[in-house]
Amino acid sequence: MTSLIRHITVDCADAYGLARFWSQVLDAPLSAEDSPGDPEALVEVPGAGMLFITVPEPKSTKNRLHLDLQPQDRTRDEEVERLLGLGATLVADHRKPNGRGWATLADPEGNEFCVECGATERAALTGARLPVTADDVTTAVRLAAAALRKSPVDDWQVPAGTLEWSCWETAEHLSDDLFSYAAQLGAPDAPDAPSDDYLPYRWAADRENGPRNSVFADPAAGPAGLLRTMEANGALLAAMVRTSSPEVRSYHPYGVSDPEGFAAMGVVETLVHMRDLAAGLDVAWEPPADLCDRVLARLFPDAPGDADRWTVLLWATGRAELPGRPRLTSWRWHGAPLDGAGRE
User: Fold this and answer.
1) pTM as predicted
2) What is the distance between the alpha carbons of residues 285 and 174, in angstroms, rounded to a whole number?
3) CA torsion, ordered 147, 149, 153, 155, to nearest 10 deg
4) Contacts of residue 116, Cβ cutoff 8 Å, sequence gap at least 6
5) What are 153-197's pLDDT values in tens digits?
6) Separation between Cα atoms, residue 253 and residue 233, nearest integer Å
7) By the 8 A CB rule, do 112 and 10 touch?
8) What digits encode the pLDDT tens for the residues 87-99?
9) Which helix (H) or strand (E) segment is 215 a member of?
């Protein structure tokens, strides 16, 4: 890659006024350097900012380039109503009840843009599987770190639930998992020479029967330092999932996987090891049901669909029983990429 898009630049009559509108649309801040009346104004959108520049010429024809928006926390129709309330106008309505189609709107200076269904709404309407994303990795690690920081236990050498590892070792192992999954995506397999092992880091255990890791936290830094390494490695995995091509394939003992698969693995490791840690560190832990559902659909497509999603995830990883289904004594997830119907 030789170039990146830095800004999406829009000519307009009132740079600051139009930037304020788009700041509300995208829930992104205006640059602190800009003020009303300035000839330029920047909306600091992650990835590529939107730069508005005042020009004397009026808009005279339909845009040759426009933005397509997907709401993340509301429906398409709710978002259209919100944007109309901010000052947009409806130009054309191509919405269909099955989730397809879009609404074409114009901003206060007449620049066209479209609003489509978000991924969650589209999946609900079509029955499609909702993918596991980099944001899911970030959410899982953020929730885990927040819960662990509330622990009243100072000594993390206590056992982690029923594991033979201490809470320190378990959290360190989780941090190492996140790092190793990120590293695997950073060195993908060649199409004609798939690898049959993890990257050749030096793997070691601090004691007999302890977890074998490639990265360790400094014990002198205490639990606070350990959690920082976990958050950092979670951020590494999220970044690799977000920036890797969907066509990337990398080794895992349960099967060569794609970026979504490694994201799901990182989420599962975080959720289930947090249960072990919660038992030892006296904290509450029950992850969001929708997050459990997405990783179950990706890694355990044959898991029961008619029970509490967190309980099913614990069952699928050998940590719980389900009515009529005994606790699993061995298990593995399906890391291979799935098609749209949830098949390998």
Assistant:
1) 0.73
2) 16
3) 120
4) 68, 69, 70, 76, 101, 102
5) 999 999 999 999 999 999 999 999 999 999 999 987 776 666 778
6) 20
7) no
8) 999 999 999 877 7
9) none
